[in-house]
Structure formats: structure tokens, C-alpha cells
Amino acid sequence: MKLHKSIGETSMALRSLLIIVLCLMVTICFSQDIKIKIKNIKLNNKLDHFSAMMNNGNVYFSQNLTNKRGKPIKNGSKTFIYSLIKANLDKQGEIINMESIKKTKLGMVNMSVSTFSKDGKYMYFTTNSVAVGVNKRKDFKTFNLQIQRAEYIEGKGWTNFIKLPFCNNNYSYAHPALSPDGNTLYFVSNIKGTKGRTDIYKVSVSGHQNYGEPVRLSRTLNSYSTELYPFVSNDNKIYFSSNRRGGFGGYDIYSYDLNTADETIIPEVLPKPINSIGEDFSFFLMDDGKRGFLTSRRTKGKGNDDIYYFTGF
User: Fold this and answer.
1) The dihedral of CA 66, 55, 218, 184: what is its sign?
2) Cβ atoms within 10 A of the Cβ of 28, count?
């Protein structure tokens, strides 16, 4: 009897301890979630606003190119045309003082999802349209998504636009993201060998003039689903969006430590309120590692794609 009683008491004590530990874990997880504050910024309206990032104190993001009546412009394929916007960020996380990136002699008008060298001299962006003919507001030549590089020259602005040499016209390349040291460019593509609809790849970059061949990232980072919008933080973590299983719904934002040598490590889905049951993508973390932007199509949004500002990450 004493042995059975002792075992029972020990079992009850262990259960009590387990309950306490679980409560602590829930409390910690909950506190980690609620310390992150997120807001739908005032900029958002019925237009698409997405892929906000910062470089040299300026904010850059993409939005619909509109006509004089403020309505979004579409190309011959009936898809929206986007332009890059340069702006400032105030202390409340609002995007202010907006101006369009000037179009060039090449007539590039569909520009989105940009990344910049640290010194701001080189810009990489996604495009698939060129304005042609007399009426460049209506006449567009479209092609598969490709990544282009532009150079900023004082007195000329953005010029020397080139398509990156590894971009094959038969495939799409999009969502460029430079590593913190500027020596690696990450992007998504559907080239031969892709595991899902699109996978994340990387190429080496030398002086923003020479580029290596695309290399697909690990088999655990990429999935049989779709990976989009990579971003690499200062501590060499890659954040990206995926519609793989295990998320909150739709596309969710994941993180993966590029410093690890173990390719069996599985990406981690970020908690709420970063992610939602809607579509969440285009994550950007500022240099302080606490503030940033993401784009979402969640409930109670103002438009289709809205930019959100977050703190307490």
C-alpha cells in the first residue's frame, strides 16, 4: 500500500509540475506574440501598396501606376502595371513625402519589389513590361518576369538599366533581395529543377557588374508549394513567404537561419500578428532588428495589398 501511495503521490506531483511548466510556456508564447505591435498605415487605400523597404533613410515601395483620374493602369494582358515610389518614414511609422522613381529612356514602367546596395548606388527590381509606340500609357510589350539592375548617377538619376545575364527569357525571375554584404542576390524563379511552383535561388555578385549562376537553396527551405519574396536580415536570416502546409492560412511568412550547416532544419513560421489567416508576404526588418514592414491581404484591410508597420519584433 505504501509503495502504491508513494507512486501515486509522485505521479500527482509530476502532473502538477507539468501543468505549471505548460502554463509558463503558454504565458511566454503569448507574451512573445503580444509584444509585437502592428498597424495598417494611413497610406493604404483601394490601390495596391506592397513590398516596402528602407535604404539610406528612404522608404521604397510599389503601388499601382494610375491614370489622371487615379485609376490603375493595365497592360495588354489585362494585368496591373506598378511603379516604384520613394518616400520618408515618420516617428509613428507612417510613410510620407512620396515621389515616383523617374522613368528612363528605356521606357521601363512596370517596376516592383526592389533591393539596393548599401551605398544606394545600385538598384535591382522586378519587371515584365516595356512601354512601346507613341502612346506609352496604353501600349506595352510584356514578357516573363525578369530582374534588372539600375545605377544611380548624380545629375542623371537612375540609368544604365540592364537585364541580369542569368535571366533566361523562357523562365521568370522575381523578388530580388541582396545579402547584407551585397555579395549574394536572392530571388525566386521557376527555372528547370524548381521543386515547387517557384523556389528561392541565389547568385554570387561581384561589384554589381558580374554574376554567378543560379543555385537553389536547401530542399527543406524550398517546398513543393510556392516560395516568394525573400529578404535577408543583418544576422543572415532569410525571411520569405510560402503557402506550404503548417501555416495560419494562405501565404505565411517564414524564417530560416542561413548560418546553419544542417540542411535538415525546417523553416519556422512567424507568430501572429505578423502572420494571419489571410495572405502575408514581403517581410522587411530594419537594421535595429525590432521594426519593419510586411504586406498583407488580411481582414479589415483598406485595399487588396496593404503595407503594415510593426514594432517589438
Assistant:
1) positive
2) 10
Task: Give the model confidence (pLDDT) of 205-249 as tens digits.
Answer: 999 999 999 999 999 999 999 999 999 999 999 999 999 999 999
Q: In the CATH hierarchy, which fold is given to the domain comprising 41-311? A: Neuraminidase (2.120.10)
Q: How far is 60 from 157, CA to CA, in rounded Å?
A: 15
The Cα–Cα gap between 142 and 152 comes to 25
Q: Please give the Cα distance from 140 to 142 (Å, whole number).
A: 6
CB-CB neighbours of 102 under 10 Å:
11
- Cβ atoms of residues 309 and 38 within 8 Å: yes
Reading the block at residue 280, the C-alpha cell is: 502575408
Nearest Cα to Cα of residue 244 among 258, 227, 219 = 227
Rounded Cα–Cα distance for residues 202 and 184 (Å): 7
CA distance 249 to 255: 16
Contact 236, 289 (CB under 8 A): no
Q: What is the pTM assigned to this prediction?
A: 0.85
For residue 115, how far is the Cα from the chain centroid? Answer: 10
Give the Cα separation of 201 and 217 in Å (integer): 6
Neighbours of 84 (CB within 10 A): 22
DSSP-assigned letter for residue 72: B
Report strand pairing: 279-285 vs 292-297. antiparallel
Strand (E) or helix (H) holding 3: helix 2-34
Domain segments of the chain as ranges: 1-34, 41-311
The runs of H, that is alpha helices, within 114-237 are none
3-state secondary structure of 230: strand
